[in-house]
Amino acid sequence: MVRIKKLYKNFEDSFMTNHSCLACDREVSDDAPYFLCNDCYKSLNRIAGRFLCVRCGDELNGESMICDLCKDKHYSFDSNHSCFYYNDTAASVVKNFKYSGRKYYAKHIAKLMFDNFDGFSKIDKFVYVPISDKKLSSRGFNQADLISKEISKLTGIPVLDALSKDEAKHSQAGLSRTERLKNLAGTFHLKDKVSSELKNKNILIIDDVFTTGTTLSECAKEINRAKPKSVITLTFAKTKLNSLN
Ligand SMILES: [Zn+2]
Ligand SMILES: [Zn+2]
Q1: pLDDT at residue 245 in the model
Q2: What share of the chain has pLDDT > 90, as a percent?
Q3: What are the phi and psi torsion angles at 28 (to 5°)?
Q4: Which chain residues have CB less than 5 Å from ligand 1, an ion?
């Protein structure tokens, strides 16, 4: 059964890539931008205000440089950039990609990220957020790995397989920020052989969604052990500040 499912996914990857909107599955033409229908493309909400939080990259009203959520928070990365708010459309794109096994999504999400981040010229290496072996075998791929490899093709910046992840005690879904941190602490590990390749380099860690920043911060903490010059993070989408409790 699993084999048949995998064969079907391969078939879909090869032959059905040109026909459905990444978010709503409606039919789109081959030249639709990023394979999104007009409605979904328009409803993607780009994070692009004049004033962005210097830490998490969220939009600000201009009264301060740091948003309320980041004021009393420490991240192990220097700053984050997220391209779009995690609204219904962005959520559909991410969920369709992760849970339907359609690997070709990576190429379009990567292009959206490439077109909506202008800091690549300062980056030496990409690192992606890892998932546990158990998750990898059930999902069949790591979405952040595939996205970073596609952005690498667009930029020429190499991707390093630098981190591994143990199984977390619980799923992160539904946990508070403090609980998330506790749940994730110590689950990411820097791989032995990559330290010298990270030292004194400008590193960009790539993931699909920034929720509280906990996962990216834990990854950056491990990367920092290799003494890089800087660590910034990039995600396709970000939960809006006021939608967190
Ligand atoms: Zn659509
Ligand atoms: Zn912030």
Answers
A1: 41
A2: 69
A3: -130, 160
A4: 21, 23-24, 37, 40
Task: Give the max Cα distance, the chain.
Answer: 57
Phi, psi of 232 (to 5 degrees): -120, 165
**What's the mean pLDDT in 105-112?**
96
Question: Could you tell me the distance, in angstroms and rounded to a whole number, from the CA of residue 70 to the centre of ligand 2?
Answer: 4
SS3 139: helix
Question: How far, in Å, is the centroid of ligand 1 from the Cα of 153?
Answer: 26
Tens of pLDDT along 125-141?
999 999 999 999 989 99
Complete domains list, the chain, with CATH: 2-243 (3.40.50)
Q: Check residue 56 and give its pLDDT.
A: 96
> 224 CA distance to ligand 2 centroid (A)?
21
Which uninterrupted H or E stretch holds 149? helix 143-155
pLDDT at 238: 97
Do residues 232 and 81 touch, judged by C-beta distance below 8 A?
yes
